Every structure is written in C-alpha cells, then in structure tokens.
Hints:
The chain is mostly helical and about 130 residues long. Helix content is about 55%, strand content about 0%. The chain has two helices and no strands.
Amino acid sequence: MxxxxxxxxxxxxxxxxxxxxxxxxxxxxxxxxxxSYLHHLEGANWNEIGLIIPEVLADHQQAESxxxxxxxxxxxxxxKFKLVMDLILATKNLLKGKYAKNPKTLSNWGFNVxxxxxxxxxxxxx
Length: 126
C-alpha cells in the first residue's frame, strides 16, 4: 500500500509574488461567496483584508521606485563627492607642506589636528 504524501506548500518571500497569491486567494474567496471555507478563519477577515491588497501592492511599487531613485542619487552624489574629497586631500597635503613646522595651523581651515604622539604597538608574548 502506497502511503500518500502530506504535501508541502511553499510560500515565496517575494513581496510581489505574495501579494499576487493574496489576490488569487481573495478572488477565490469572493467567487465562493457565503460558501467560502475562509469564513472559518478566526481573527482574520478576507473581506476586509482583501480590499487593501491593491493598496499594499501600490505602496510596494512606489517604495521600489523610490529605492531605485535613491540608488541613482547615491551614484550621482558619490561621483561628485569624489571631486570634493580629492580637493580636501590635496588641500590638506598642501597645507601640511606649507605649515610643516606648525601643523596646528590647519585648524584655521577647519581640519581637526591631533598632535598627540601615536601609541606604540604592543608586542604579543608567545
């Protein structure tokens, strides 16, 4: 005698695919009407939640669009920021050369100058 399998039901973690599944469940629930088995769920109501599925999908799509726009803005910012950073480093190097004997003078330009001696590295005992 062959033992029937219980069957595994895989649910995706992809938001759009889950919303598509929810829409299909809701459509079947509406199609079944008063005979829908989903009326037996406690603490959840497909008649209420089903109505917000399109809103959730629209919110998700807007968030994804904004995410793509943000990523593009970061790329643009990073390209421009490299120019700023290169200029800051060149300025620091020029001023360090000019004021080699008194590097604290760089603080006049807004640089944070730490003139404390570097801590010596400790040797590990084996």
